[in-house]
Amino acid sequence: MIMIMTGCIAQERSKDGAPDQMQTQAATVTDPVCGMQIDPAKAANKSDYKGKTYYFCSDHCKTTFDDNPEAVLNKDSKKKQ
Fold first, then answer.
1. What is the pLDDT of residues 3-18, one digit of tens each?
2. What pTM was estimated for this model as a whole?
3. At what angle do helices 69-80 and 59-67 cross, to 10 degrees?
């Protein structure tokens, strides 16, 4: 079996190049609250904010984000100052 990376999705292919039952692996995303890398398909929860979807490892991280999304999203820029 050969792994071919195409953008954000890796598709498994058999040696003849055909898709192997179209098994795909999604790229991970970063929980904006705790920084944990998670698979969006397995995320505990998600929130949409300003046209973007954010994924969370736990309900606690989602609640923290929902309480003040701007503070969470701007925490990295404050650390750099």
1. 444 444 444 455 555 5
2. 0.64
3. 80
